[in-house]
Amino acid sequence: MPTRPLALAERCLADRREFILSGASLAALPWLGLIAQGAVRFSRAFANDPVQLGVASGDPAPDGFVIWTRLAPDPLAGGGMAAEAVPVKWEIAEDDAMKNYRNALGQQVMIARVELKPGAEIGFSMDKWSGYEVATRRLMSFLADRKIPNPVVLTGDIHSNWVNDLKVNFDKPEEPTVATEFVGTSITSGGNGARTHKYLDTLLRENQFVRFQNVERGYVRCTVTPNEWRSDYQVVEYVDKPGAPLVTRQSFVVKNGHPGAQTA
Predict the structure, then answer these.
(1) β-bridge mates for residue 102, sequence order
(2) Is 244 helix (H, G, I), strand (E, B) or coil?
(3) For 20-56, what is each residue's pLDDT tens digit?
(4) Where are the domains of the chain?
(5) Can you give the pTM of this predicted structure?
(6) Mean pLDDT of all residues in the chain?
(7) Do residues 149 and 228 make contact, with C-beta atoms less than 8 angstroms apart?
């Protein structure tokens, strides 16, 4: 997979810094699906091309493969990288000009502000983005104001599956959807789980931006094409004994140029 030349990467640095200042930290996504072109963005400038060692790929599958690289602006001098973290964003597109691409934000805790209490009483988790309302609105406003194309958020942490339409103001479900969030469950921790939460009807009524939720074990399989991002929620009904069949519990797509999850 070819990478964007340094000159082009440098032209993207202003937008990248703005994104970091907006409260987001972008992570590398090493397993994106079969795409014609690829590129990386960096949070700082380099004197030399930091991807001189190239980008490797492996572990091919019918619907994807793994990609990885090592940043080394001076490969013959130990790599030339300082002892500091450098956020990397993988960017994928169907064309050489890198115009028709998707912005994927990989991060740890759920962004959607889920109301946990029914009726007039208000309750949110303080361990997620819902505990940081100002930062959440700043990030969502950044995506909306700059019309970032095809933003998809990938999240984990909470041992359950979710699909959320992300808004600038979650109190106004009629507002346009800014991005789509796919939250993946745990593979084994938490026991067998359950197909539906006992308070699911109340949760969906209180949070109209939640498109799907369950607490089974499994993973999310993502397939990216020029026309859509597809997420298949792969689950097993039990993990306490061998032999559980793999089930596609639900599938959602995000169409190119149309934020928001649609049932596949």
Answers:
(1) 92
(2) coil
(3) 333 333 333 332 333 334 455 555 677 787 777 777 7
(4) 6-71+86-99, 107-127+142-263
(5) 0.64
(6) 77
(7) no
